[in-house]
Structure formats: structure tokens, C-alpha cells
């Protein structure tokens, strides 16, 4: 074989030393092709013939572009991403994609149509999405195939944002006039696992005061004599801009309060009709409802006379002038008679009587 030729648009041909021919088809060419070749007898005689090559068609890989997108947690304007994948395929009718509808990923769902239009929607309510911290990134990759199975990818970057904490209501109890310190952070949560602190607390000043302690506890100090329920509002922070407020309900148990009582004094005089009685009114205040009254006494005997007091504090003392111990008093001699009076809750006070003697004539 002394030579060979072929249409270069269809391929190339090589004459091998052993007399064979090698035909190399042009890229992606298929169909019949004629190779012309010439032979010689070495003595000037030649002849030319045609070798017909049939190039069988095979599927050709499509040439596909890739896709990328970015979505962001808790950011409505950035919870979706979309794009268009490019495709070329020399095989007729195969420059299309295999469609997908809402294919599930770890962080969201993916769709693509036959023309390569793709869309990704972040599942913002997904706990794994909400667990992403501020600035944390995760990658979500979806495989897309053309009609002939050639693969490409769409890669999504998921960016985390700070998730605010959740403060949960608390409760505590204490006795009247007794401060109480209690924790509030133990049942509060943060999706990102951030360290929480108490940044402030408030309460109705008529019911008491509240202090935020360095360890995150609160101390409530009831107003004097206050009892009943009281709501303490407190705010927590994750240190990254996220805050939450909750109510701690404190039950202040009532305790008996000592009444504030006045004392009483009076003077009586032996054998002096105008001065054998004394009287007065005891004062009383008591913050406990219904207890600003006295325990009544009627004709309570003393050494020199008898004593009475009603519930309103009106008291009276009558000297027993006929009593020998009274008659034994000398001119100007004095004796003291003290009676104890109690309020409804048992708080005591006293009424003190001074008994003055007079001269008793001889018999």
C-alpha cells in the first residue's frame, strides 16, 4: 500500500508498515466513510480502490455546567437560591436534564427541571438548621444528571445566624419580711448552646425589690409586711444580641405581725371619792387584717383595785377603798399596780396605776 486518503471532516487514515490501514474517526463522527487507497507491484504497476468504513454511533457524554448558591438561616430574603445549569450534548435530543422535585437534603429541598432551572429552599424550621451558630456554615450538595446520565452538581452553602434564647417562667416562695434568692437560668434554653446571663429584672416597688446576682440568680426582698403573689420580670441574653423575657412568680407567705401598742397610766387616791377611779384609751396599730383590737378584760383583780379593758382599748381602774391594804397606806405613801393588756395576736402592753395613801384618823 503506497498511500491512502479520507475526507478530513470524517477522520484521518494511516498506512501501516504491514500494509494495513488505520482509520481514526473525527470526534463524535458516525456513519459511512470512504477511504481511498493505492497499491503498487513495485515495478510501476499501481491500482486504487475504496475501503468503506462504517462508524457506529455511541452515546456522547453531555458537557454540563455546575451550580452554586447560598442561603441563610432565619433570613426570609435569603432562604432560597436558584440558577440555571448549562448543557451541551452532540447526541440529538439529549441536551436535557432528568428532573427532580423537592428532593430532600439535610438542610432543605432541591428541584430541577429538564431545562436546568434549579431551586433550593432552606427548611428554616428544621432543628439542624436552627442549631447552626452565628456564622457557622454547612454544605449541601445535590447531584443532577443529563438525559444520558452524565452527572453534575449543585452546591449550596448554608449560613447560620444567632438564635435568641427562650426564657421560661419560674417560681419561688418565702415568708413575709424575708428575702429569697432563687435561680432562673436552669430551665432557660438557647438553640445555639450559647452561655446565658441575666441582664435585668424588675418588680412592682410597692411589693418589694429585686437584685440580679453575679451568678445569675435573683434575690427578691419583700416590702415590709407584704404578703401574697408577686411577679418578677427578668430578661436573659445569649451575648450575641438575642434576648428573652419571662416572669418569676414569688409567693410571699403571711406571718403574724406584732401590733404596735401604746401604754396607759393613771393615779388614784385613798379615801378621795373623786380620785378612786382612773381611765384612758390604749392606742393600737396592726398590719394584719382584723387584729388591731384588744383582748377584753372585765373586773380583773389587782392588789389595790380592779381593772377592765374593752376590745377598743378603753380601760378603767377602780380603787378598792375598803381593802385593808389600801387603808393601811400612810399619808403620801404610794404603791404601783400594773396590769398587762394584750392585742388580738398576743402582743402585750401595760397600764400602770399609782395608788396614793392618805392620812387615816385615829379611832
Automatic annotation (TrEMBL):
Gene3D superfamilies from the UniProt entry: Immunoglobulins
Domain Cadherin-like: 1-56
InterPro entries per UniProt: Cadherin_5 (IPR041690), Ig-like_fold (IPR013783), VCBS_dom (IPR010221)
Pfam families: Big_9, Cadherin_5
UniProt region (Disordered), positions on chain: 159-180
Entry superkingdom: Bacteria
The protein, known as: Tandem-95 repeat protein
Amino acid at each position: 500500500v503506497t498511500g491512502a486518503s479520507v475526507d478530513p471532516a470524517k477522520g484521518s487514515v494511516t498506512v501501516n508498515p504491514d500494509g494495513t490501514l488505520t482509520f481514526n474517526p473525527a470526534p463524535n463522527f458516525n456513519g459511512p466513510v470512504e477511504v481511498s487507497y493505492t497499491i503498487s507491484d513495485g515495478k510501476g504497476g499501481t491500482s486504487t480502490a475504496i475501503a468503506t468504513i462504517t462508524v457506529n454511533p455511541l452515546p456522547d457524554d453531555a458537557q454540563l455546567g455546575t451550580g452554586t448558591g447560598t442561603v441563610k438561616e432565619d433570613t426570609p430574603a435569603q432562604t432560597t437560591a436558584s440558577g440555571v445549569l448549562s448543557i451541551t450534548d452532540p447526541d440529538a435530543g439529549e441536551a436535557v436534564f432528568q428532573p427532580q422535585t423537592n428532593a430532600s437534603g439535610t438542610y432543605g429541598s432541591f428541584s430541577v427541571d429538564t431545562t436546568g432551572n434549579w431551586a433550593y429552599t432552606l427548611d428554616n424550621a428544621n432543628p439542624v438548621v436552627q442549631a447552626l451558630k452565628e456564622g457557622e456554615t454547612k454544605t449541601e450538595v445535590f447531584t443532577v444528571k443529563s438525559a444520558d446520565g452524565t452527572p453534575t452538581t449543585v452546591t449550596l452553602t448554608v449560613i447560620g445566624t444567632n438564635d435568641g434564647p427562650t426564657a421560661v417562667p419560674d417560681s419561688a416562695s418565702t415568708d413575709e419580711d424575708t428575702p429569697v434568692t432563687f435561680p432562673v437560668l436552669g430551665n432557660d434554653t438557647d438553640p445555639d448552646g450559647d452561655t446565658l446571663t441575666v441582664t435585668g429584672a424588675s418588680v412592682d416597688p410597692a411589693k418589694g425589690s429585686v437584685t440580679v446576682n453575679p451568678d445569675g440568680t435573683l434575690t427578691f426582698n419583700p416590702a415590709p409586711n407584704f404578703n401574697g403573689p408577686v411577679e418578677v420580670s427578668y430578661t436573659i441574653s445569649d451575648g450575641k444580641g438575642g434576648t428573652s423575657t419571662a416572669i418569676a412568680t414569688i409567693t410571699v407567705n403571711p406571718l403574724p405581725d406584732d401590733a404596735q401598742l401604746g401604754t396607759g397610766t393613771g393615779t388614784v387616791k385613798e379615801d378621795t371619792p373623786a380620785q378612786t377611779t382612773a381611765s384612758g384609751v390604749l392606742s393600737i396599730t396592726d398590719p394584719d387584717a382584723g387584729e388591731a383590737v384588744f383582748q377584753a378584760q372585765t373586773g380583773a383583780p389587782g392588789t389595790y383595785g380592779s381593772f377592765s379593758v374593752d376590745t377598743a382599748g378603753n380601760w378603767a381602774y377602780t380603787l378598792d377603798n375598803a381593802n385593808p391594804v389600801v387603808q393601811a397606806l400612810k399619808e403620801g405613801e404610794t404603791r404601783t399596780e400594773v396590769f398587762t393588756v394584750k392585742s388580738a395576736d398576743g402582743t402585750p402592753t401595760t397600764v400602770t396605776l399609782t395608788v396614793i395613801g392618805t392620812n387615816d384618823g385615829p379611832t
